[in-house]
Amino acid sequence: MTPVPSNWPADYHSHTRLCKHASGEPRDYARAARQRGLPELATTDHGPTPLNYDPLHRMEMEQFPEYLGGVRAAQREEPGFVLLGIEADYFESCESFMADWLAAQPFDLVLGSIHYLSPPAPDRSEFKPLWNFGGIRGTWKRYFELVGKLADSGLYDIVGHLDMLKRNGSRLADKELRECALPALDRIAAAGMAIEINTSGLRHAVKEIYPSPLLLSWARERGIPIVFGSDAHQPDQVGSAFEQAVRLARESGYTDSLRFRGRVAARVPFDAASGAHGPC
Ligand SMILES: [Zn+2]
Ligand SMILES: [Zn+2]
Q1: What pLDDT score does 273 carry?
Q2: Which of 61, 140, 206, 236 could form a disulfide with 48 if both were Cys (CB 3.0 to 4.6 A apart)?
Q3: Residue 167 and residue 130 in contact, taking contact as beta carbons nearer than 8 Å
Q4: Between residues 78 and 179, the one the model is more confident about
């Protein structure tokens, strides 16, 4: 694992064995982040949902105390280094549950992610979440409508992997993407939310960071802040391809990213090249 330069952005997206499709404990991810020289790690495993919503890819509600214990253990080992986060799904009708449950937990940050366009069957064993919803255009339109609703809910801090719909390579022409995506980006900006630059797309068939350079430039135009995430499902993926992520951010005009404590954000400059503080 290659150490990175100083003043690197934090990794705000990592999982644990509790979601049933990742491995390792929070402390394993924290150790990997420390080894890489990252300034901070957020554990953001797939949070529990009511109504038996996709139980095969997330912790059970009764496992949440175990999750909390794992993060607290990592925090004791790496004081001031590990944040308690969660990747909470957004889906229609989730709002009342999420409003109560998220507010009751001592989270440092909450990623809001869309993994399905309609509720998955409870016994679904495959994780093919997003596509096949009335053709490519209909699917993207539906997806960004849900992103807009996620933003409007005001329940989350950061939109996770903004265009993960492209995961299998399905893409829209720029003009159609603009029509679908800009209203959602406007709602993200209005909600005061951040978006995540998520490098897991480089590990998927699409081989591209989420979001695309074009989407990120539109986010930048709207003043939407960013965080960085590897979406690590095993400890050796922590901080993966952050060099590319930082380059993408800088090319889009970003010079800082958000750091969170207790769901309150602060802007922190990143500088991949020199470790210097502040935009130049
Ligand atoms: Zn996952
Ligand atoms: Zn996700």
Answers
A1: 45
A2: 61
A3: yes
A4: 179
**Share above pLDDT 70 across residues of the chain, in percent, rounded to a whole number:** 89
pTM over 0.85: yes
Please name the CATH architecture into which domain 17-269 falls: Alpha-Beta Barrel (3.20)
> Could you say which DSSP state residue 124 is in?
-
Q: What share of the chain has pLDDT > 90, as a percent?
A: 79
What would the mean pLDDT of 24-31 be, rounded to a whole number? Answer: 98
Q: Quick one: pLDDT at residue 52?
A: 79
Distance 45 CA to ligand 1 centre (A): 8
Q: What spacing in Å lies between the alpha carbon of 161 and ligand 2's midpoint? A: 7
| Ion ligand 2, residues whose Cβ is below 5 A away | 113
Question: Which residues does 169 contact at the CB level (< 8 Å), separation at least 6?
Answer: 205, 206
Beta strands in the chain (DSSP E): 41-43, 82-89, 109-113, 158-159, 194-198, 226-229, 256-261, 264-269
Whole-number Å distance, alpha carbon 279 to ligand 1 midpoint, is 34
* Strands of the 194-198 sheet, one edge to the other: 41-43, 82-89, 109-113, 158-159, 194-198, 226-229
The mean pLDDT value of the chain amounts to 91
Å from CA of 190 to ligand 2 middle:
23
Give the pLDDT score at 128: 52
Instruction: List the domain boundaries for the chain.
Output: 17-269
Measure 46 CA to ligand 2 centroid, in angstroms. 7
CA of 12 to the centre of ligand 1 (A): 14
